[in-house]
Design brief:
Blueprint lengths: L1 H22 L4 H11 L9 E2 L2 E2 L2 E2 L10 E3 L4 H14 L33 H23 E5 L3 E6 L6 H4 L4 E2 L3 E7 L2 E6 L5 E5 L4 H11 L3
Antiparallel strand pairs: 1-2, 3-4, 4-5, 5-6, 6-7, 8-9, 9-10
Helix pairs in contact: 2-3, 3-4
Length: 220
């Protein structure tokens, strides 16, 4: 009988904790991360590599069956945003639980709300604010500087400058000029024959899409 009663209390306790977790509001950092992922521009590319649909659009004046302007990938800005919130929020939430501001639907015992401004420690939150600013800059940079892959070349163009497919050829690396290329965890490194050096393109695009196109078009 004692074992049954102990098991009953254990199940009831776990059920209570689960309900509290469901009723708790999502953390602000998670909300911000989700919001950043939802504001991405829609893909308008009709280009396929096998069964893979390439996420991007056709450059102005480009060939829809060959040229693609890749959609920005917010992975790096999103991770920076998350790290920034993780650096800021703890410095704004250190005060007695009874003083914290909680949303009306919160049913917990406290400890996850925001404190009055007199309890804020902005000095310790400074690195977090720097990361938040960096996230905004990275997101803007990723949206303005887009990777382009054509039938014969690859490179990055500034879409804010109204660059057409014809103009973009000045900024691209021809496939027959590529000595080697490597898809790294944080971008694409391309070594050219003509200059003998390497150019690096940060990972602001879908790496699997780029890999599929380069494997199909680059002959080393």
């Amino acid at each position: 009988r004692r074992a049954i009663r102990a098991r009953y209390h254990l199940v009831a306790s776990r059920l209570h904790n689960t309900i509290n977790m469901i009723m708790m509001p999502p953390r602000p950092s998670i909300i911000a991360l989700a919001a950043l992922l939802l504001v991405l521009p829609p893909s308008a590319s009709s280009l396929n590599v096998g069964r893979r649909v390439i996420k991007g659009s056709t450059p102005v004046g480009g060939d829809p069956t060959a040229d693609v302007l890749f959609d920005p990938n917010p992975a790096i800005p999103a991770l920076t945003l998350y790290a920034g919130f993780q650096g800021v929020l703890p410095s704004l939430a250190k005060c007695p639980n009874e003083l914290q501001f909680q949303p009306p639907w919160y049913l917990g015992d406290g400890g996850s709300g925001l404190c009055p401004s007199e309890y804020w420690n902005l000095a310790t939150a400074a690195p977090g604010f720097v990361l938040l600013a960096a996230s905004a800059w990275l997101y803007a940079y990723a949206g303005a500087n887009r990777l382009v892959v054509t039938e014969r070349a690859v490179g990055v163009v500034n879409v804010g400058a109204d660059v057409t497919a014809e103009d973009a050829r000045e900024y691209l690396i021809a496939f027959n000029d590529i000595e080697a290329y490597n898809l790294l965890p944080f971008g694409l490194s391309v070594t050219t024959k003509s200059e003998g050096g390497s150019k690096f393109f940060p990972l602001f695009w879908d790496s699997n899409d780029v890999k599929a196109l380069l494997e199909e078009r680059v002959r080393l």
